[in-house]
């Protein structure tokens, strides 16, 4: 369970990323966050694993309070919270398998990492993760030799290798074509169902959000302005989140679009 | 058939710089030429038939006016033109200050001719007679490259804010790297020869290797450090998000990205070491340079010529091999 109570994020430059966010996300939920660019979706997701430290309020993941000041605690938290990025963030010059093994870092001693000499059980876990996303045949290919969709699935396998309780996905399909995007979201959805991993996804595409989400959260200007089951996320409700028509190309935004 | 004209406002012309600004520049140019005339201590004269003019001030004046005319023609902004004038002025000032001239090249040609003749008649047999020194040179280069590049990589990792444990560490190591780099290879050579005793005391090779190591650390730490600064930060963020430690992140996300660049710099440093060991040998560190030093003191130019030719060939081979390897890895 993830609980935000009155969480604020103020960036060093003074920009307020989150304003008084109150939110509870239950175990096993598949939550999609929508909102315009700059609405605070990324900030919300990155607060959960401490990539962005929150400045006031309280955030708990599982039973532990997230403490951005303690490196050790944050590392322990991150070992059970996996993250997927828009640009995949694979090390392109090493093999797919070695990329997936990055997910085992937190439980691998430093000397093993330095020598690149991983335990057999870690490799086994990495192979299982690759099998789950269906690209185990590419295990010894260089990551750079894979297509975008395949690379994103390697990134999902990297997360699975962590054996996480939560998966955070920051715009996971924004740089993929629509069929590939659906394939990746189906993978995430299936993993969420099969393993019961809480999954929080940022999405730009409303139709995709409606197709895969259990619950939709709308953000504007760093605040949560909509929160409800997917059936309630009607066009009217989302237009309210965006503060503009869903179809108008040139409508001048009143606020929130920075 | 004619395409319909596009309705558009007239295209802008490149703006002409203000004439007043150029008048100011002209005044500055005249001032510069007066300064040339006043400060020139050279007695060299240029004979143009009707009169003899002081050579350096005339050259300076011609340069200044040519640059000004070019800038005006190209509609260069006054600030750029001022910069060009400054470059001419400083170059002239430096050149005349040391009395720069190419005249001795042909005026003293007769004195140099015997030396050139000896150079043109290299004693080929000498190359083989000093083969052991070549082996020493190569061995020095290999050892120094290995140690220097390893230490250099470590310092580069500590120096770059991307891979360093903290900002103070990064800045401190950067400062150390700058100091190491500021001393040239021959400076280290003189230092270690003085400390260890050089070729005469049988420690020439050791002094040479140490000098090369310091020289290599400076170069590798600088180049690799800049490569680390510019790696793709995405994989680093991903490694952070899995809960890896700094050491693991550097090994898994940084090292694979810099490896091609780093290997290429290491090979380049190896090439440099072959060349640098010649100069180091002359100040008393071992290797082929010490042979050159001995032959030079005997005025044995045909032997030196042979070594030079062999050196060019060795360097070309090393260049070629390392270029081939570098192409493969990048």
UniProtKB/TrEMBL annotation, chain A:
GO molecular function, one term: ABC-type phosphonate transporter activity
Pfam (any one): ABC_tran
Protein name: Phosphonates import ATP-binding protein PhnC
UniProt organism field: Nesterenkonia cremea
PROSITE patterns documented for this protein: ABC_TRANSPORTER_1, ABC_TRANSPORTER_2
Gene Ontology terms: cellular component: membrane
Alphabetically ordered keywords of this record: ATP-binding, Cell membrane, Membrane, Nucleotide-binding, Translocase, Transport
Residue ranges occupied by any ABC transporter domain in the UniProt entry: 2-246
InterPro entries associated with the record: AAA+_ATPase (IPR003593), ABC_transporter-like_ATP-bd (IPR003439), ABC_transporter-like_CS (IPR017871), ABC_transpr_PhnC (IPR012693), MetN_ABC_transporter-like (IPR050086), P-loop_NTPase (IPR027417)
Keyword Phosphoprotein: no
Organism phylogeny: Bacteria, Bacillati, Actinomycetota, Actinomycetes, Micrococcales
TrEMBL record, chain B:
One Pfam family per UniProt: BPD_transp_1
Keyword Transcription: no
Residue intervals of the ABC transmembrane type-1 domain: 134-322
Family named by the database record: Belongs to the binding-protein-dependent transport system permease family.
Membrane topology, from the record: Multi-pass membrane protein
Protein name: ABC transmembrane type-1 domain-containing protein
Keyword Phosphoprotein: no
InterPro entries listed in its UniProt record: MetI-like, MetI-like_sf, PhnE/PtxC
Any GO MF annotation of the entry: ABC-type phosphonate transporter activity
A GO cellular-component term linked to this record: plasma membrane
TM annotation in the entry: 21-41, 53-72, 79-103, 134-158, 179-200, 206-225, 272-292, 304-325
Protein keywords: Cell membrane, Membrane, Transmembrane, Transmembrane helix, Transport
Compartment annotation: Cell membrane
